[in-house]
Amino acid sequence: MSATTYLFIANAAVWVGVSGYLIFLASKSAGLEKRVQQLELLGDDNDS
Hints:
mainly alpha
């Protein structure tokens, strides 16, 4: 395999890693947003 092939494979691996990390962050963000909404609803119930 030539150096160009290794470079392409390394580049693809980096982009797969970055994409996976962004998907991970998006899922965590969605979970946190859901939890914040739950806490806000609980807080509204206690204020009444």
